[in-house]
Each structure stands twice: as structure tokens, then as C-alpha cells.
Amino acid sequence: MKLSQYSSALSLLMLLGFIWGTGYSIAHFATTHGVSPMGYSFWQAMGPAFIFAFFSKTLKNSNKISVKHWQYYLICGLTGIVIPNTNMYFTAAHLPTGILAVIVNTVPIVAYPLALYARAESFHMVRFVGVLLAVVGLMLIILPGTSLPTKDMAPWALSALLTPLSFAFSAVYISRYRPEGGNSLSHAGGTLIAATLILTPFVLLTKQFYFFNFPLQMPDYVILLEILLSSLGYVLFFQLIKIAGPVFYSLVDTIVALTGLFWGYIIFHETLNAWTTPAVICILFALILVTKEKYRLMTRETNIC
């Protein structure tokens, strides 16, 4: 990776982290103001899908879409959008925004033990210590009855872990099995269309479709705002994976977590207590240990620095 390419990747990383970190507060507001989690998830797939379809037509994208492409899009849509986003939106209404952002963005920490089990990574003590620190942090959030505002939030904090698990699988799959042909715009669009197709029957069967109000009300504006941010985020995500790979992309989680904590404090006046403060510190420090060590190993092997 050249210096100019590294600078571009770093800029994409910072912007993507800020966009995704902001999304937690938006989702919390929407799901606590009359928008069902399934309906919100549907619009966050279908809305960006329409935008990408429009730009693909405008740009006269003539890339041939094969069966292999659609298989790729379906798996990416399921593991990178449908499962993690829907799970996250269900938990968003039941957890503080900052705490949710910290838990969800443990993707590198969750991915490392999986990679060890699959023998795709070698054992490194620093990264293993990071995993242990994250486990301690999660236990400080989930186990004590006074760590969260109410005791019934603990199961939701535990269920939120499904999201980083799904994201971790998706990031590796996107990087390893990206088909030839196409670009970040077409791949993001295809993934969003696939996610919309998967979500449609579930939204209809559960009767959780959200109808926009006319004239538009605040929840409607919030959904539209997140659609625009998500559309930009998906392009940045695929582009970052393309130019820098999943390891560099994993550095985004710390930025997202900090952004989520920031907006949670500013918008919802969320504060940390005697249990959640050390928990968040442990998890953030764990993220730094895991991602920094991995990035150090990668740069040493590829002579980036």
C-alpha cells in the first residue's frame, strides 16, 4: 500500500466510523418513536437499494451480473445487513445508545477467536489479552444488576453480540470471495437489493411494515436521513475493503464506538456509571490491543510503513 493509498484509506476509515457511529442514535430515536425494528431494517435496505439502482442507471453501469454475483450478494446481504442490522434495531430500543455502540463494535474481538479456531490466524498473546479484556468488559455490563438502567436490559445486551458475530463473518466473506468485475457501487447495490428481497416476506408476514406519514413527521425525516447516511456508508465500506482489506477496516470499530458514546451523551444525555465506565474502558482498550497488534503484524509483513 502506497502512502497516498494509505492516506485515502485512513480518510475513508474516519468518515465511515463517524457515519456508522451516528446511526446508533438515529436507530434509537426511530425505534422509540413508533417505527418497528423490522420496518426500520427494511427501509434501511430498500432505501439505499433504490439510490444505488438510480446511480447505476445514471452511470450506465453495464457490468454483467452472473449467478456467482447474486450468490455473493445474497450471502453478503444476509450476513452483512439482514441479520446484524435487524438484531441491532431490535436491541436499539432497549439499550443505551453508547453501550449498544460499544457492544456491537467488538467485531475484531469476536473475529479473532473464530479465526484461531479455523486456523486462519496464529496465536498472539497481546491479541489474546485483548479478547480477555473484552470478555471482562462485557461481563461488567451484563452480570451486575445495577450496571444498566434496568435489569431487563441485560438479556438485550447479550443478544446484541449476534450483530458483531455476523459482521465479522461478512467482512471476511466480502474480502475473500469478491467476484471479478463490478465496482464498490455495483456490489453495494447488489447486496442491498438482495437484503431487501430477503426482508420483504418477513416484514409482510409480521405486519411490521412502516408507512410514511404525509406530511412527513420527525420519525420519517430520521429514516430518510439514515437512508442517505447508510447509502454513503455502504460505498465507503466496500471501497475501504477493496483498497485496504478487512484488517485495516477492523480499525473502524473503535471510531464507531467512540462516536456512539459521544452522540448518546449529547442527544440522550446518557452517562456511564461505576460498572459501565470500567466496562467501556476495558472493551475500548481491548479493541485497540486486538486491532493495533493485527495491523502491526500486517504492516510488518507487507512493508507498509
Task: Report on this structure.
The structure is a single chain. The chain is an all-alpha fold and 305 residues long. Helix content is 77%, strand content 0%. It contains twelve helices and no strands. The longest helix has 32 residues, at 218-249.
Helix content: over 70%
| Shape verdict | globular
Q: Main sheet, how many strands, which sense, barrel? A: none
Mean pLDDT: 85
Q: Report the portion of residues in β strands.
A: under 5%
| End-to-end CA span | 9 Å
Order of helices and strands: HHHHHHHHHHHH
Gyration radius, rounded: 19 Å
Overview features:
single chain, 305 residues, mainly alpha, globular
Structure, briefly:
77% of the residues lie in helices and 0% in strands. The chain has 12 helices and no strands.
Write the layout of secondary structure elements.
Blueprint: H1 3-31, H2 37-58, H3 67-92, H4 97-104, H5 107-117, H6 125-142, H7 154-159, H8 162-176, H9 184-206, H10 218-249, H11 252-268, H12 276-302
Helix pairs in contact: 1-4, 1-10, 1-11, 2-3, 2-9, 2-10, 3-8, 3-9, 4-11, 5-6, 5-8, 6-12, 8-10, 9-10
